[in-house]
Protein 1
Amino acid sequence: MIEVKMLSKFYGSGESRFQVLKNISLKIEEGDFAVILGASGSGKSTLLNVMSGLERPENGQVIYNGEDITTFSDRQLTQFRKENIGFIFQQYYLLPNMNVVKNVKMGADLAANKDYKTMIEAVGLKDKLQKYPSELSGGEQQRVSVARALAKKPKFLFLDEPTGALDEQTGRQVLDYICKLQKQYGFTIVMVTHNLNIAEMAKTVIKMNSGKISEICTNEFPKNAYEIGW
């Protein structure tokens, strides 16, 4: 479980200092698929970054199964992310001088996972092992980033607008892969998006506005990637 208690985050200093997160509290159960919705500037990406340990809050707690990661040293926090957290962003962040196998192996090495080629096959890139990022389509590159994130066997997968740069067909395909892999491996998903349709795939929907949570609701019957609108 991820539990957030009275989380506050500021940016800037002096007269330009402003509060991005305003005393946010929430819980995300283990194995959940949670989507954070909100307009640009609502604080959703900042919340994702603080929850995942990429940024530190000014106040509040981020608790994973009883451990408050806001009390960790930088070294402890880095180790925690290494052992528990996977990231997928709108930008693929693949190393251009490495082929598919080597990019995914980077994630696998963090968990001493020698079975990483299975993850490449799981995202449908078995025939692209030796291709470089420049030789892949946008959707294929995003699937490599999915395989890389999951090759480290994370317990929690954080995604920030993972389909934002993809066309509809490719976006649906990537979301479908992620959901199938979640069912297979049981990790928890926390995804930021502005796409209301994608929220229909989630079990938990967290709506944000002006740095606060305006509503948390539950989908009793989540849809799959090919049932939602786009």
Protein 2
Amino acid sequence: MKEEMNQYLEKANVLVEALPYIQRFNRKIIVVKYGGSAMVDDNLKKSVIEDVTLLKLVGFKPIIVHGGGKEISSWVNKVGMESKFINGLRVTDDATMEIAEMVLGRVGKSLVTMVQELGVKAISISGKDGGLLQVEKKYSDGKDIGYVGDIKNVNASILFDLLEKDFLPIVCPIGLDDEFKSYNINADDAACAIARAVNAEKLAFLTDIEGVYKNPEDKSTLISELTVPEAQKLLESGHIGGGMLPKLNNCIDAIENGVSRVHILDGRIAHCLLLEIFTNKGIGTAILSEDGPRYYKEEN
């Protein structure tokens, strides 16, 4: 009986610990970039959707921006084509663009189903809908990579309208240029642009790494909080490479354009969003402005 009571008390303590964070971010917008292993593993997928749905139910205004790179590559292979990348960006010809749009649309609708099974209204919207994401052709170091777009404008009023009507928007990163041609958009870039446009309180990237390290070779050097100047010094140090380089640049760009706080989380950890947002220590890396409040308390 005592053991059972201790379990109840532990649950109560968790709720009490979460209370100040719920109060601080009530009615604030949080953008979640959903990708990586969390989109492939069914259990992780379920935990992410549960997290986002809970955020909605306790007063947050979440927006999901999803990728789908692994599934796109799978379908490209299924039809006998070969995925090509230049500087980490998918070369998108006509046929690949058609597959990408099909796959991303399918992913969005499946996420809508999962959210609505938990009792929250959701809607999947392409960046093409209502001119949500207006793009121009993107080049990679001067190289033509096909139908890959750079976002030049976000029609945020669409997202504000959906949030006002109590929907959870789920955004597919496909956009249109001035000639109304479809372009694939890097999901990290789309999440960052959307977070800026809606003046999000938080932007969270779900990744396949634990966070940002002072020394990537030493896992004990995980950084819980990082100011923009500190992040810029890390970039200049040359220690940051691979996929973290553009991601960290996106984080800095978001903070400098009005987003209050950016989180880089390990999407392979079940309920990583709740652990990062509602606990004193957090589990990933949070990037904030130089004068931003430090939320996490160091353990004694």
